[in-house]
C-alpha cells in the first residue's frame, strides 16, 4: 500500500533538473520574488556539464596538452621532456577543478535566492502536479531541464566486456594502457587525443566516412591529420559489429563490419546522448515527445502542454550547455515576464576542444551551397599569420561563407578557435557586415587577425579586377 502524500504545495514555478538550464531559470525567477521549487534527482546541483562533461573534459584536455608541449620542447628551442604520466594525479586535478566550481552551484546559494531545493526523483501526476519524493508540488508553470544520458549502441558483447562513458571517464586513475574509442564525434575525438597524449595506445573507430561529420570536410581532414600525428590510430568506415570480451587480462576484440578487428584493454563509448525522460510520466502531463525521443517544443520553448516549458538536452535540438542557458533566457521571458520571446538558432556556435580546436557558426560551405547555390567561401591559413608562426601553432584555417554581401557561416580550425568565434557569430547574426570586420583595427600580432584576413580575401577578389585597375588608371590620369 502506497503511503499517503503530504498536502499539496503550490509554487509559481517548478523546475525539474538542476543542470545549467534549470539553475538559470530557477535563480532568476527566485530572485524576482516568485515561489520556486527546484527538483534534482542526483543529489547535487550542476548537472552533466559540471560533473561529467564540459568542465572535467576541459581540465583533462589541459593536462594532456601540457604533456604534449613537454614532448614538443625542441620546437621551441628547449630540450624534450618525456612526461611521467600519473593518472591518479591527473584525476585529482580534474576533481579539484570540479570541486572548486561546485561552490557556484551550492544548494544554499539557491535557497538564499528564495528557491526551494528538493533532492528527489520527479514524476508528473497530472499537468500541474509533480511528485518529488513524498511531496506533491503544484506548479502554475513548470520547466523540464532533465538533460541527457549517454546513448549506448546495442553491440553484442559490449555489456559483457564492460565499457566507459563520459560518466565514468574522469575517475580513471589506472596506469596508461590501450583504449578503443567508439564514436568520432566531439567527445570521441577529444578523449581519443587526450588519452593518447597521456600515454595510452588509442584506436578511434568511427562508423561514418569522416570524423566530425557535421563540420566542414576540410576541418575534419585537418583534425584527422592532427590526431594521427599524435599517434591515434584513426579508422573511419569502421562500424563495430561485435565485441569479444578478453579474459584473464587479454584485450577485448572489436570485430568490425568489414571483417577486420581492433583490440584494446579498455573501451570508451562516445556515440552520442539521449534525452532523459524515463520515469517522468510525461503522458500524465500531456507532454509529447518528437521522433527522436526528445521533448517537442516550439520556438518559445513551450511543450504540447503550454504551461510546461523545456530547456537543454531534454529538448535539443543540440546538446550544448550554452544552448541550455540561451533557452533558459527565452523561458524566463515567456514564463516569468509573459513576453512572447522566441529562440533563434541561426547563429548558434559550437566548438570541439581538440588540438587544433574546431569552431563553427552558421552554415558550412556545403550546407550553404545546397541551400542557396550562389555562395562564396574564402579562407585564410594560420600558417600565414605572424602570431601563429611565433607560437608554433600553424595548423588550421578560417573559412567564411558569403552570400549577397553577408557572412552566413564561419569555420575556424586552429589555436583557440573557440575564442575567435564571437566576432564571427555577431556577423552571422547580422550585427556585423564584412566591411565592419575589414575596417576594424585588429591588434598586431594576434590570432584574431585570422577573421580579417579571410574577409580581405573576399574583398580582394573584387578589388583586383581588370575593370577596377582600368578605373584607377583613369582616375589618376584625370585627377591632379
UniProtKB/TrEMBL annotation:
Record-listed NAD(+) binding positions: 183-190, 272
Domain (FAD/NAD(P)-binding): residue spans on this chain: 11-322
InterPro entries for the chain: FAD/NAD-bd_sf, FAD/NAD-binding_dom, FAD/NAD-linked_Rdtase_dimer_sf, Pyr_nuc-diS_OxRdtase, Pyr_nucl-diS_OxRdtase_dimer, Pyr_OxRdtase_I_AS
UniProt keyword annotation of Phosphoprotein present: no
Domain of life: Bacteria
Limits of the Pyridine nucleotide-disulphide oxidoreductase dimerisation domain: 349-454
Co-factor requirement: FAD
Keyword tags: Disulfide bond, FAD, Flavoprotein, NAD, NADP, Nucleotide-binding, Oxidoreductase, Pyruvate, Redox-active center
Cysteines engaged in disulfide bonds, as pairs: 49-54
Cofactor remark: Binds 1 FAD per subunit.
GO molecular function: flavin adenine dinucleotide binding; NAD(P)H dehydrogenase (quinone) activity; oxidoreductase activity, acting on a sulfur group of donors, NAD(P) as acceptor
Binding site for FAD: 58, 146-148, 313
Family listed: Belongs to the class-I pyridine nucleotide-disulfide oxidoreductase family.
PANTHER family membership: MERCURIC REDUCTASE
Name of this protein: Pyruvate/2-oxoglutarate dehydrogenase complex, dihydrolipoamide dehydrogenase (E3) component
Native source species: Thiohalorhabdus denitrificans
